[in-house]
Amino acid sequence: MTIVSQVILKADDELRYPSSGELEGIKNFLTTGDQRVRIAETLAASEKKIVDRATKELFRMHPEYRSPGGNAYGQKQYNQCIRDFGWYLRLVTYGILAGDKEPIEKIGLIGVKEMYNSLGVPVPGMVDSIRCLRDAAVALLSKQDAEEATPYFDYIIQSMS
Hints:
Blueprint: H1 3-13, H2 20-31, H3 33-45, H4 47-61, H5 75-98, H6 102-109, H7 112-119, H8 123-138, H9 143-160
């Protein structure tokens, strides 16, 4: 839910007009819209490049994942890892567009540790994979855009840690 929706619903629940602080938050959200859209477009257009870089870096850090018995051994498991990279990148773009981490939480993080544990996927490896994804993504952004995007990746990292 965007900040605009949140402010409206909260004010309505309390039978009042939005406060000046809430209106200032909406103003800030609207003025950063071009930047958030630009970041999302860059990430979407560069998905393959970002995923390729992140994949190479993760398997450089953890070659055991591609070895027999590793979670990315075999083409099917490897493809599932790559699929997850793209999914998390897309999830980050949702948060950036909304200007809020709520879409990340609602769509992608509820029960994620339990799911990976039940599948036998090492959660520390997933944390490393999101770090690799973050680093590959922000390398393509300007400093200002990277500063805007990084907290969304870090939120996923923190949630998985």
